[in-house]
Amino acid sequence: MNKQSGFTLLELVIAIAIFALLGLASWRLFDGVVRTQQGTGQHERDIRALQRAVGVIERDVWQTVADSVVLAPGHLQLQRSHWRNPLDQARSERQAVSYRLEGAVLWRDSVGEGSTLMQRQKLLDDVRGLGWRVFDRQRGWHRETAGGSAPLALELVVSAGRFEQVRRVLLLPEALP
């Protein structure tokens, strides 16, 4: 009696088919994880860009000089103090700052008091909408500043990237006790 040991052709084909199905399932799982990670990474970058832009605006608003906020349609202008001076240069601590939307980019323009050098900073890309409002005791919320009443708060509403609408209300120094 001659007994042969080994696998039949049918057994090999079934084993290869099972191995191929496991490989395909593993590849699909890996591909899904990579795509999710890429989406999460982009979302994180978008959130950080938005946080950075709002942080710059908050810093400027919190250091606003009294009665210096000028709000016109699509444009915010203010004067801030406590301008950082890491090089200890001889200059004023006051700085005129304006925010404007140009195309789909939010820009911050600043110039130091007594200087002619304008600094332009790109704050945020892919901006679809930008709105500003100020609050004062006499008129409530409105889209333009008016003489005679100092605004107490500033509202920023921005639509950028994958964020439909982000609203931030910032107190001005006049509102703080």
From TrEMBL:
TM stretches of this protein: 7-30
Alphabetical keyword list: Cell inner membrane, Cell membrane, Membrane, Methylation, Transmembrane, Transmembrane helix
Coiled coil: none
Primary localization: membrane
A Pfam family annotated for this UniProt entry: T2SSJ
Superkingdom as given in the UniProt entry: Bacteria
Family matches, as InterPro entries: N_methyl_site, Pilin-like, T2SS_protein-GspJ, T2SS_protein_J
Membrane topology annotation: Single-pass membrane protein
GO cellular component, one term: type II protein secretion system complex
Subcellular location per the Swiss-Prot or TrEMBL entry: Cell inner membrane
Similarity comment: Belongs to the GSP J family.
Protein's recorded name: Type II secretion system protein J
Species lineage: Bacteria, Pseudomonadati, Pseudomonadota, Gammaproteobacteria, Pseudomonadales
